[in-house]
């Protein structure tokens, strides 16, 4: 069967080599510690599961849901935004339920990008932003995220002609994979640029609740005028350990929300209502367990950051997300570093280049394994003899 060009033009899957190696090393009987997977290991809080069970018993939830989400769910989202960010949203016009935020981020270009239009995409970044752009026939303009710029895109470096042709811009702070955070000043600059060029900013706020040391990640919608030009994507996946449940939402600019909704009426039929009731329970119910999860991730972060520093490896202390992003020691190639780490000490990290060319020189550790395993991984790193590797530069 001949694949369509849009699939053929997707870049090669850069983690294939690591995946193969992982199977190979496991087959040798090695107890592999996998720090590659960005999927919470902590269970969904029980009161959310009970809400799903109760709702699933009610035959009313078994029918087709409304495509835009139950008003009660959208109201819960609006109330949560008011409480968390002091941003007032109209649940009818400015909130849309999604089958996970990935679904919405991928579909957005279908609503607003014509073939040949430019979409501004962070590099390194979540691969869905570029894939969604290409599926809509758009052209990706990569915005490199560099450490010397705190992993924020340099908006002034976007050529004027490119900015003029751009229809959409993706941002994601706290960021996957770099764990960087953005300031309100940066968002204000972004809003200014976007408004002057008519660019729709799609901010992926997935990690707003995985925050450490008292830091509070802002919403771009807190910025004056943002609502004219921006939407935000969020979901319950990471905050409440609900990745398998598929429940997210898009909020902000009413015409952007309506445009995405129009795509969705043509491709899906909304989120199972029992899952939406569970989402209401998550957003409006007790937050003590997600608070505890946050502390758990923070402790894990400290084990990893402490472990890397003890080795003399360079690392920034993340203020959010459940990732640690660090420069590959000895300036080695990130894929070779990850492969050798796996072969020699049985620890999987993700090579930065897998998230885009500007990720080269870095690797990502996911804090989604128990403390004891992380501590063991750090212990194993002590036995990893970097200086023997080809290309090592102290
Ligand atoms: C995990 C993740 C997502 C996916 O979220 P879902 O709501 O589960 O679809 C989206 N964006 C980023 C940056 C992520 O890391």
How would you describe the overall organization of this protein?
This protein is of the alpha/beta class. It folds into 2 domains: 5-43 and 288-385, Aspartate Aminotransferase, domain 1 (Alpha-Beta Complex); 46-284, Aspartate Aminotransferase, domain 2. Helix content is 39%, strand content 14%. It contains 13 helices and 12 strands. The strands form 3 sheets. The chain has a 7-stranded mixed beta sheet, with helices on both faces. Strands 9-12-11 form a 3-stranded antiparallel beta sheet. A two-stranded parallel ribbon has the order 1-10. Helix 5 (101-112) runs parallel beside helix 6. The model has no long low-confidence stretch (mean pLDDT 95). The protein binds pyridoxal-5'-phosphate (PLP). The site of pyridoxal-5'-phosphate (PLP) has 14 residues, from helix 5.
What is the strand content? Answer: 5-15%
CATH architecture of the largest domain: 3-Layer(aba) Sandwich
Helix proportion range: 25-40%
The Rg value, from CA coordinates, equals: 21 Å
Helical element count? 13
Instruction: Give the N-to-C terminal Cα separation.
Output: 50 Å
Quick summary of this structure?
It is built from 13 helices and twelve strands. It is an alpha/beta fold and 394 residues long. The chain folds into two domains: 5-43 and 288-385, Alpha-Beta Complex (Aspartate Aminotransferase, domain 1); 46-284, Type I PLP-dependent aspartate aminotransferase-like (Major domain) (Aspartate Aminotransferase, domain 2), CATH 3.40.640.
């Amino acid at each position: 069967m001949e694949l369509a060009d849009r699939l053929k033009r997707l870049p090669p899957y850069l983690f294939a080599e690591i995946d193969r190696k992982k199977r190979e090393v496991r087959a040798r009987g090695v107890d592999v510690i996998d720090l590659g997977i960005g999927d919470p290991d902590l269970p969904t809080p029980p009161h959310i599961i009970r809400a799903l069970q109760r709702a699933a018993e009610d035959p009313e939830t078994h029918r087709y849901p409304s495509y835009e989400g139950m008003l009660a769910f959208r109201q819960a989202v609006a109330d949560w935004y008011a409480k968390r960010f002091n941003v007032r949203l109209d649940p009818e016009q400015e909130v849309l339920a999604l089958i996970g935020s990935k679904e919405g981020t991928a579909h957005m270009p279908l609503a607003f990008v014509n073939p040949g239009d430019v979409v501004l995409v962070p590099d390194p970044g979540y691969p869905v932003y570029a894939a969604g752009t290409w599926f809509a026939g758009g052209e990706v303009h990569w915005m490199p995220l560099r450490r010397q710029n705190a992993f924020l895109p340099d908006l002034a470096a976007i050529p004027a002609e490119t900015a003029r042709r751009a229809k959409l811009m993706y941002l994601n702070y706290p960021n996957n994979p770099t764990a960087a955070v953005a300031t309100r000043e940066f968002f204000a600059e972004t809003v200014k640029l976007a408004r002057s060029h008519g660019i729709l900013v799609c901010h992926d706020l997935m990690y707003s609740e995985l925050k450490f040391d008292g830091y509070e990640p802002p919403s771009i919608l807190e910025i004056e005028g943002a609502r004219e030009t921006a939407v935000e994507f969020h979901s319950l996946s990471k905050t409440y350990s609900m990745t398998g449940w598929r429940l997210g939402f898009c909020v902000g600019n009413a015409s952007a929300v309506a445009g995405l909704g129009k795509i969705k009426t043509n491709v899906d039929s909304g989120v199972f209502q029992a899952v939406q009731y569970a989402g209401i329970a998550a957003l409006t119910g007790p937050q003590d367990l997600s608070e505890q999860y946050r502390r758990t991730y923070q402790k894990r972060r400290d084990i990893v950051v402490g472990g890397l520093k003890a080795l003399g490896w360079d690392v920034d202390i993340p203020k959010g997300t459940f990732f640690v992003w660090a420069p590959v020691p000895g300036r080695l190639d990130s894929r070779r570093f990850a492969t050798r780490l796996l072969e020699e000490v049985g620890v999987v990290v993700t090579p930065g280049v897998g998230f885009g060319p500007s990720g080269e020189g870095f690797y990502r550790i996911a804090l989604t394994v128990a403390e004891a395993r992380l501590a063991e991984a750090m212990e194993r790193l002590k036995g990893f003899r970097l200086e023997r590797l080809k290309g090592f530069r102290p």
